[in-house]
Design brief:
The chain has helices spanning 6-17, 29-35, 54-66, 81-92, 107-115, 127-141, 151-157, 159-167, 182-194, 210-217, 240-249, 258-272, 278-289, 291-294, 310-318, and strands spanning 25-26, 38-43, 74-77, 97-101, 119-122, 144-145, 173-177, 199-205, 252-256, 298-303. The chain is of the alpha/beta class.
């Protein structure tokens, strides 16, 4: 996939800013002390949907509206944040949004998608199964299939790393969680568009290692399952285009245990009083895991979302 240019990212950012302001990046002193480095946090948990995905949804839906696409609605599959983005953006253009989620999906993310105007369909045991059902609905009902990974989504999402790189110059390394790949490919796009040398490190869960396996193999590698509390990273079938971008653009991909993800969620809360969902805390978890490598350096982590169910977060905070 061709990565967007600087002018294309800036144009997409204008679309995003018509709805929401840029998000902040803060250097929390307790987190820096814990990490042993100068540490910046990009707060994508501060968007209207509580996650970075909304930027891509706004740009994608604006493009559909601009082209005058005629269809009875759009359909997509999600574990939550992408679905909130689609519902939120579709409502702004009066477009019907059908959203497929797997069984046992986040109760509170499901509620948010409905509240934003999405029509929820529960189908399948995991994201991939829900995605396949969305494709069937698209064909059956002549709905526009809105993917979770697309150049337009990446273009919109790239507005947030662009903000970070311009606000915090000379970063040595940035950690980015990997779900289907829009966040990390957007970060690569923004870095390259600005001509920076910053290292980008991807982060996955040990229970959902498809992108780490794919990066190491140099080609897409699927897994039989993807089980993790970080539902935003619960991918078992990677996007070939994203794998190619990662292969050429990241330094490495780090895998975290469930305990390391939970520990990072607690660290965000105790050190900054921010709520991070599993995927949102993963970048910090990887930074802490590589503490010795990062000592004395200037590092940033992407807090990509804060949409975690209260019951799960309560259990995480109760752990020792």
């Amino acid at each position: 996939m061709r990565l967007p240019s600087l002018s294309e990212i800036e144009t997409a950012a204008e679309t995003v800013y018509a709805t929401m302001p840029p998000t902040p990046q803060y250097a929390w002193p307790l987190l820096a002390e814990r990490a042993g480095c100068e540490l910046w946090v990009k707060h994508e948990n501060h968007t209207p949907t509580g996650a970075f995905k909304v930027r891509g949804g706004l740009v994608y839906m604006a493009d559909l509206a601009k082209r005058g696409a005629r269809m009875p609605g759009v359909v997509t599959a999600t574990r939550g944040n992408h679905g909130q983005s689609v519902a939120f953006a579709a409502a702004r253009h009066g477009i019907r949004a059908v959203i497929c989620v797997p069984e046992g999906n986040s109760v509170e993310k499901n509620a948010a998608m409905r509240a934003f105007g999405g029509e929820l369909v529960v189908e399948g045991h995991d994201f991939q199964a829900a995605r396949e059902h969305a494709e069937l609905l698209a064909e059956r009902e002549s709905l526009h299939m809105l993917p979770s990974y697309d150049e337009r989504l990446v273009r919109g999402v790239a507005s947030y790393p662009l903000e970070l790189f311009r606000a915090v110059p000379d970063l040595d390394r940035v950690y980015v969680p990997v779900g289907l790949g829009s966040g990390i490919t957007a970060t690569i796009a923004a870095r390259d568009a600005l001509g920076l040398k910053t290292e980008i490190v991807g982060v996955v869960a040990e229970g959902a290692p498809a992108y780490k396996l794919s990066f190491e193999a140099g080609k897409p590698v699927s897994t039989d399952q993807a089980i993790t509390i970080a539902d935003g990273m619960a991918c078992r079938v990677p996007e070939p285009e994203a794998v190619e971008v990662l292969w050429n653009g990241v330094a490495e991909i780090v895998a975290l245990t469930e305990a390391e993800i939970a520990s990072a969620m607690r660290a965000f809360y105790t050190d900054s009083h921010n709520v991070a969902e599993g995927a949102g805390a993963a970048a910090l978890g990887a930074c802490l895991k590589q503490k010795e490598q990062n000592r004395g350096r200037k590092i940033a982590v992407m807090l990509c979302g804060g949409n975690v169910d209260a019951a799960l977060f309560r259990d995480v905070l109760a752990e020792v």
